[in-house]
């Protein structure tokens, strides 16, 4: 494969460009995947603009954090996979005909799943299982609030919470049409955080306060989230779509004895990510395979339309996952 090239969307001088780039070669513990479908994520917007996202970023970077396809080659130390296996992966460089990932970041595509369906799953499963279980300490009988629930990750979080026995699941969206769909994807109730009294609404729905909040918005919702939380509630900061800085009510935080936990994949080691993937398979595999945990597909684009796909995401009018087909 030395010297081989492939088609990819990459960061050029004037933004995202489509063209030939070197085909990656798998390192000893990596697999090379022939990408059939890649799924878009919010972080791709920053990477495509030239910004850094963890170790990714800068001129020549191929965006794309999750994808599905077939194993095309194995690193020298890889076990458990063979060429031709169908896999769904988290990793990097998915906006391309080929991408590499650590062999323990890949999961087998369940029988009967198309590549499109499989590509929607890896990051949503990993992010929300880790937020709810590993960081949020969710137990059956807890009440759970997902802030920013109409995203793919948010929709998955609602479903995982229901599967794990949440007593009450509440999702939020400020868009009327998307909020109306939240109960189709695991929510018992849907709220609008543009309404000033939404913390009171949450407290009424949860007998005085919600046990666990998964916050994808942050910014202006940080203090209202603490108002909505139960005494000794937990808040897991997963995303900062509403802003990365804000005033923090330290007294309210202390009075309620809230555990406020920040998470990101950007500073995780490969060993930590492998453990997250293993946790998904341990706790969720049967309901992944039978389709209980699923995400809607909003729209698909060809690789040559990667820029248009990202603009569609930036417009924030989609519901579900946006896909690319290399």
TrEMBL record:
**Coiled-coil intervals:** none
- Residues of the Enoyl reductase (ER) domain: 12-324
Q: Which InterPro entries match?
A: ADH-like_C, ADH-like_N, ER, GroES-like_sf, NAD(P)-bd_dom_sf
Question: Can the keyword Oxidoreductase be found in this entry's annotation?
Answer: yes
Query: Nucleus among the record's keywords?
Result: no
Which top-level enzyme class is recorded in the Swiss-Prot or TrEMBL entry?
A: oxidoreductase
Task: Kindly list the residue ranges recorded as spanning the membrane.
Answer: none
> Recorded GO terms, molecular function?
NADPH binding; quinone reductase (NADPH) activity
Return the EC number: 1.6.5.5
**Assigned keywords, A-Z:** NADP, Oxidoreductase
The protein depicted here goes by the name NADPH2:quinone reductase
Organism classification: Bacteria, Pseudomonadati, Pseudomonadota, Alphaproteobacteria, Hyphomicrobiales
């Amino acid at each position: 494969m030395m010297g081989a090239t492939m088609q990819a969307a990459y960061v050029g001088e004037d933004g995202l460009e489509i063209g030939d780039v070197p085909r990656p070669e798998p390192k000893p513990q990596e697999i090379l995947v022939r990408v059939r479908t890649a799924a878009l994520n919010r972080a791709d917007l920053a990477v495509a603009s030239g910004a850094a996202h963890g170790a990714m970023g800068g001129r020549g970077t191929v965006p794309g954090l999750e994808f599905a396809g077939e194993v095309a080659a194995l690193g020298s130390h890889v076990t458990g996979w063979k060429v031709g296996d169908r896999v769904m992966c988290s990793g990097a460089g998915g906006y391309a005909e080929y991408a590499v990932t650590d062999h323990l970041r890949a999961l087998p595509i369940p029988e009967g799943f198309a590549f499109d369906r499989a590509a929607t799953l890896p990051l949503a499963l990993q992010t929300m299982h880790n937020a709810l279980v590993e960081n949020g300490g969710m137990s059956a009988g807890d009440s759970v609030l997902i802030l920013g629930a109409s995203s793919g990750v948010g929709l998955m979080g609602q479903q995982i919470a229901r599967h794990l026995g949440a007593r009450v699941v509440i999702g939020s969206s400020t868009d009327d049409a998307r909020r109306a769909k939240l109960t189709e994807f695991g929510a018992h109730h849907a709220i609008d955080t543009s309404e000033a009294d939404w913390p009171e609404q949450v407290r009424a729905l949860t007998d005085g306060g919600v046990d666990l909040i998964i916050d994808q918005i942050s910014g202006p919702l940080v203090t209202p989230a603490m108002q909505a939380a139960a005494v000794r509630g937990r808040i897991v900061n997963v995303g900062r779509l509403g802003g990365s800085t804000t005033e923090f009510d330290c007294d309210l935080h202390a009075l309620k004895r809230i555990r406020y936990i920040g998470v990101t994949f950007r500073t995780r080691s490969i060993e930590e990510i492998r453990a997250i993937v293993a946790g998904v398979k341990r706790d969720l595999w049967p309901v992944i395979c039978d389709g209980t945990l699923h995400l809607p597909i909003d729209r698909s684009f060809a690789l040559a339309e990667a820029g248009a796909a990202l603009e569609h995401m930036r417009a924030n009018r989609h519901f579900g996952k946006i896909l690319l087909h290399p």
